[in-house]
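Residues pack. Consider this:
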Amino acid sequence: MTLDWPELDLTRFSGAGGARGALASSQNFHVALARSGPRLLRPAECDVSQTLVEPAASFPSFLDEGVEPRAGIVVPVLEDDCLEVLACMLDVRQEVVRGIGAFLSEAERRRAEGLKSERDRRRFIACRGQLRQILASRLGISPSDVELEYGPLGKPQLSHRMPSRNLHFSVSRSGDVAVVALSTGREVGVDIEAVLPVPEADEIAALCFSASDYESYAALGPDDRLEGFFRRWTRLEAISKGLGCGLGYPSSSDERDWVVRSFIPKTGYLGSVVVRK
């Protein structure tokens, strides 16, 4: 069982089987992580044994400029009654990577070692380590004691041995940013994407979007088309992650089964998070 589903990189569709090939590969999604507990830790220095969270002064509304998270700091980007979304940077200092790397399980370390790029290894460790810090702070345990188990299609969740089975989580990575969505008592899914040109966006939209979504997307003007594509795409991926499956798998779930929120984790990125009603 793989540790998590790799992110689907929309910018690499061309020349690699086209949109249809990319859709087939989308079932290999990537998830992992979560919510619960009101306590946000704010130590002054980057102590890798703790989760560093910026004060939640004001949350940006959609289309506002992102909050620009800093390396080593976990920043709240969205908060509601049963939902919390935290953003963190993945290009952290090497000593921080080494420190939080000690929290990873043996399987996670093997997963990191199997990545070809040093940058990908560093970002994977930074994402997994910060995820474990966030979960541990909610559970009141050490990050290295966080145990995960996996659903039939690889969706990670807290092990039945953990203090709270009521904590649901999802994670998404794109570029140098990761977000963790946390929800108490409800399934949650999250997805972020760097807003970059996608040459086959129209073809992907025709294959993946619902009839109504495609109609509204196709009606957009050229200046709004890219943002409109990513708004709809991230919503689809977030719902798929909430369900624990990829876009290539059939599902009886309806989008109306989910509460959908959009957010900006960082300037140049768009995200969607969904919570089951």
